[in-house]
Structure formats: structure tokens, C-alpha cells
Amino acid sequence: ILDDADLKDIDPTVLKHCHAAAATCILEAGKHKADISAISTCLEDCKLDKERIEQFWTEYQVLKPILTYLCRTPRHITDVSWRLEYQIKSNQLHKTYQPSYLVTLNVESGDSGSPRDVSFSCTMEQLQDLVGKLKDAAKGLERASQM
């Protein structure tokens, strides 16, 4: 979006906010299974003209099956396991001595209920970053629940 020649005169921060707002609108419409009247009312309140609303609706119809799938009951992490992996040599027989963590998240979908494992490898710094972001998210939820 930021590289589009038609949008080069618009402040990048404004573009990012507009993009986020449009994405949120689309996801919320999918989550609530909104019809054309609900979407039209919302977009008219945002001062969009009929032509833009029709264009939005046409594009929304294309994305609707994907949104329906994505907006189902969210997945839940039910368990996490990890182990330290220490790579001593590379496949070229060079000594590397690089520690990394193998993390496995047990994820359960609300629809099917069948657990699935999601695994990834990360460095100590990446793992610390993930833990910091999870702590921030937990604090945010705690603040939101106190309101």
C-alpha cells in the first residue's frame, strides 16, 4: 500500500490507520455474518457513496467464504512443551555451537475439537521477545477486565 503511486501524497500513518480500519470492518462483518443492509448502513455512516459501497459489497462477497472459515470459533492453546536444541556442527561440518529452542503448542479448534500441534524453532532472543509479548497481552486483558 505504501508503495502505490496513487497514494504517495497521503501520510503513511493515515494510510496504515485506514488499512487497519478497513481490515477490522471486513473481519467484523464476517464475524457477524453481516448482510448488505448492515454493511451499507455502517459505510453510509462513514460517508461512503453508493458506488463505493457497492464495490465494497462485491469484493466482500468474494472474500466471504474465507471470512466465514476464519471467523469460526478461535483456536485455543491447551498445552505447550519445549526443549533446548544445541547444534554443534552444520551440514558442512563447521562447528556452530548454536542453541535454539524447539517449541510445540498443542492447539485445539473450537469447531472440531481435535488437537493439533504447531511447532517452531527460535533463538533465545526470539523466545524472550515472544514471552514479553505474551506478558503484555496478559496485562492488557487484565486491564480490560477491570474496566
From TrEMBL:
<comment type="similarity">
    <text>Belongs to the COMM domain-containing protein 3 family.</text>
</comment>
<dbReference type="InterPro" id="IPR037355">
    <property type="entry name" value="COMMD3"/>
</dbReference>
<protein>
    <recommendedName>
        <fullName>COMM domain-containing protein 3</fullName>
    </recommendedName>
</protein>
<dbReference type="Pfam" id="PF21672">
    <property type="entry name" value="COMM_HN"/>
</dbReference>
<dbReference type="InterPro" id="IPR017920">
    <property type="entry name" value="COMM"/>
</dbReference>
<dbReference type="Pfam" id="PF07258">
    <property type="entry name" value="COMM_domain"/>
</dbReference>
<dbReference type="GO" id="GO:0006814">
    <property type="term" value="P:sodium ion transport"/>
</dbReference>
<feature type="domain" description="COMM">
    <location>
        <begin position="76"/>
        <end position="145"/>
    </location>
</feature>
